[in-house]
Design brief:
With 119 residues, the protein is mainly alpha-helical. Helix content is 81%, strand content 0%. The chain is built from 3 helices and no strands. The chain is elongated, with a radius of gyration of 46 Å. The N and C termini lie far apart (110 Å).
């Protein structure tokens, strides 16, 4: 160790008498104690906070509900439009679908005759 790192001997020796030391300890002892106060209002504070949160949630719910109702109406209208367009298209294509099915049946018959003739 270097000489500078050694603690000075004066600091390690006390020049305070035992009586003075005891008086000082008695003087600062109340400041060193931890005081835990139980607050009787603690549950009331929590209750008030809960009521405040409930009020905020109810306010947000009202605004959100209005927006959701508008969105619901818009989605419902769009679905109705899609349904009516689907019915219209199906009605327009019904004759073509029937014609396609007839030609498919005819093709299946011709294919079957071809297979029988090939064997």
């Amino acid at each position: 160790r270097a000489v500078d790192e050694e603690p000075p001997q004066e600091v390690l020796k006390s020049h305070t008498s035992m009586a003075e030391w005891k008086l000082e300890v008695e003087r600062v002892m109340p400041l060193l104690r931890v005081h835990i106060r139980s607050e009787d209002k603690d549950w009331r504070n929590h209750f008030e906070q809960m009521q405040g949160h409930q009020t905020e949630i109810q306010g947000a719910l009202a605004d959100t509900k209005v927006h959701l109702d508008k969105l619901h109406k818009e989605v419902s209208r769009t679905l109705e439009k899609i349904g009516s367009r689907e019915k219209y298209i199906n009605g327009q294509l019904e004759s073509l679908i029937q014609e396609y099915r007839l030609k498919q049946d005819k093709l299946a018959g011709v294919t079957e005759k071809y297979k029988q003739a090939s064997v």
